[in-house]
């Protein structure tokens, strides 16, 4: 009996369900490795300038693994661009966590977004999906997640600091990313620097929210000024 109980863990480890989980885990790891290898190549060389064999070599994988997990090079390109955009969104949220005022918050977001080429990369994926509608659902899910997470992060900052938002969080998030995509694409076409892109984003965005603390201090100053003027007149 004792000998049987010792063997039981090995039998459980060999269970088909365990094997399936292990296979899924290995599959996710390989997909991630292929995405990691493909992304910098696509960003540097573009879709047409990057061969499947180049990606396989960079990932220490076989070309057949790329077609197995992603079917086509175009599908891999779009998934890379979508993933990189969501990584950028996460980075902007992290950069803005230290902000203490609405102005600092908007500056941190704009500076982080314009310092990266992820939006330009994503724009290439958008153009590709116009001709490949089978790839459009991934882009759609990415944009939905981008807006949802942006709205959540912005609402959290507003609640945390007690700011008075000028727009609903969802509207603010959508507006921010629409401005970012438009300004960055126009700027890339005209050869503008990241600093110039950031300045243009800030100009177009304007005020996103107001700090209630600052507003209160401003009213207090006005009241003092008014009383001092009144005393002078008397």
Structure description:
The protein is mainly α and 234 residues long. 82% of the residues lie in helices and 3% in strands. It is built from 11 helices and 2 strands. The protein has helices spanning 2-13, 16-45, 52-59, 63-70, 73-96, 102-114, 118-131, 136-161, 169-190, 194-205, 212-233, and strands spanning 163-165, 209-211. A two-stranded antiparallel sheet has the order 1-2. α2 (16-45) crosses α3 (52-59), α5 (73-96) runs parallel beside α8 and α6 crosses α10.
Please tag this protein with its features:
single chain; 234 residues; mainly alpha; two-stranded antiparallel sheet; 11 helices; elongated; disordered N terminus; disordered C terminus
SSE topology sketch:
Blueprint: H1 2-13, H2 16-45, H3 52-59, H4 63-70, H5 73-96, H6 102-114, H7 118-131, H8 136-161, E1 163-165, H9 169-190, H10 194-205, E2 209-211, H11 212-233
Antiparallel strand pairs: 1-2
Helix pairs in contact: 2-3, 2-4, 2-5, 5-6, 5-7, 5-8, 6-10, 8-9, 9-10
